[in-house]
Amino acid sequence: MNRLADEIITMFQYEFMQKAILVGAIVALCASLLGVILVLKRYSMIGDGLSHVGFGALSLAVALDTAPMPVAMPVVVIAAFFLLRLSENGKLKGDSAIALISSSSIALGVIINAASGGTNMDLNSYMFGSVLAMTDSDVYLSLALSVVVLGLFVIFYNRIFAITFDESFAKATGIHTGFYNTLLAVLTAVTIVVGMRIMGTMLISSLIIFPALSSMRIFKNFKTVIISSAVVSVLCFVTGLIASYIYSMPTGACIVVTNLMVFILFAMIGKVVE
Asked: Does the pTM exceed 0.70?
């Protein structure tokens, strides 16, 4: 036990781990808040679809030998707009639109990657996450964007709550539902791009889905689910990060497995308290 405590203390003395904790915790918080809304709106797979778009954008950035985040951010945000428009036109439902964009982005990413000479370590770090890959500019940009996401969520909380539970009624009362749905999609896109460095494009969507689903196994009140999801998300991130350091395992995978274990635990507790 003492050895484990010493390892954890040593871990937090490294600058790259301090960056990972700082950025990861606030990204996990953003993802958990948005995740509750997306799950309740039955739009939880938007994170998965946009993360695949992120893979295609990163492949393009690597091929062009340029900074990945400035390329990925506008591409994923545009995809969020496009995804929303596809699902709103009535011809393509949300899950169909996500599948269309997701598979197309993966295919384009693979083609671009192959044409540029094959996968390299930088692209791998974005696909599966790497705390070592974070630069100072990544940290500053990630923190700034995360604060914007949290700020907008808090400012428009009541409107987002309204369109989540009864969009038709919200529209009838004069709320511009289209704007707030678009805002939700854009905030999700920004959160995904910011979290790709640590979680990877293949795993970032789990940070959105798992905490919300876990909290809903036990709690039924909206605010309680929001608070629980935020706490669960941050704790699972920190625990997974510590586990990845101690056992020399991939960061993103450890965080996902930690979330899975919490989901199973909450599901069991939920069965007992019903």
From this structure: yes
